[in-house]
């Protein structure tokens, strides 16, 4: 009788230790693994020799953008590196074959449908006049400060927005939405110019990119949103390196009767 109590206490202590250990292990299992988990594509730098799911997503995005990464196998090898260099070259970036922040920014992940990225989605700014304008999803065609707004200017009408170079060089000019190149030529006043036709929710839009230093596309070519159509320049009636950008609700015409304020669709 006198030895019963110490045995009960010992048993209780053993039971409590097992219970606590089981609870800790169970909590860890429910929480799932943390260390070593893949970050969303775009959140880390990808380079030659890597092998995981983020590389597969990178390969898919490169192929969608027309830069051949070969098989989507998750292995960052010569084909993937070559595709990254192709993208970097087309976007006017430093060509090193390493997919870092600037490379992913140039790929416009949200526009490519990458829901895994933690980057902010492109926003459509300004008061839209219709449901179509709210869902058009046009993006900023070039990096740089706005130097001239849409509206009356110098006794006439400025039918677009000017984006300046901000002292930078070789700035890529990108298609604001996917579509088909209507014109890629030299136009009076505009200099080297590209016009792209887009269809959004059954409505036709055309965007115009003028004063380009060089043109990277040709008439009839399909382009993706964010794909380079040229390089910002100073051709035509221009007083400095900049992009003149127009959006037309309908086809572009010489009278610019379909021109609208690009801020209705684009966040500059």
From TrEMBL:
<dbReference type="InterPro" id="IPR036365">
    <property type="entry name" value="PGBD-like_sf"/>
</dbReference>
<protein>
    <submittedName>
        <fullName>Putative peptidoglycan binding protein</fullName>
    </submittedName>
</protein>
<feature type="domain" description="M23ase beta-sheet core">
    <location>
        <begin position="157"/>
        <end position="259"/>
    </location>
</feature>
<dbReference type="InterPro" id="IPR011055">
    <property type="entry name" value="Dup_hybrid_motif"/>
</dbReference>
<feature type="domain" description="Peptidoglycan binding-like">
    <location>
        <begin position="52"/>
        <end position="107"/>
    </location>
</feature>
<dbReference type="GO" id="GO:0004222">
    <property type="term" value="F:metalloendopeptidase activity"/>
</dbReference>
<feature type="region of interest" description="Disordered">
    <location>
        <begin position="113"/>
        <end position="145"/>
    </location>
</feature>
<dbReference type="Pfam" id="PF01551">
    <property type="entry name" value="Peptidase_M23"/>
</dbReference>
<dbReference type="InterPro" id="IPR016047">
    <property type="entry name" value="M23ase_b-sheet_dom"/>
</dbReference>
<dbReference type="InterPro" id="IPR002477">
    <property type="entry name" value="Peptidoglycan-bd-like"/>
</dbReference>
<dbReference type="InterPro" id="IPR036366">
    <property type="entry name" value="PGBDSf"/>
</dbReference>
<feature type="compositionally biased region" description="Polar residues">
    <location>
        <begin position="114"/>
        <end position="137"/>
    </location>
</feature>
<dbReference type="Pfam" id="PF01471">
    <property type="entry name" value="PG_binding_1"/>
</dbReference>
<dbReference type="InterPro" id="IPR050570">
    <property type="entry name" value="Cell_wall_metabolism_enzyme"/>
</dbReference>
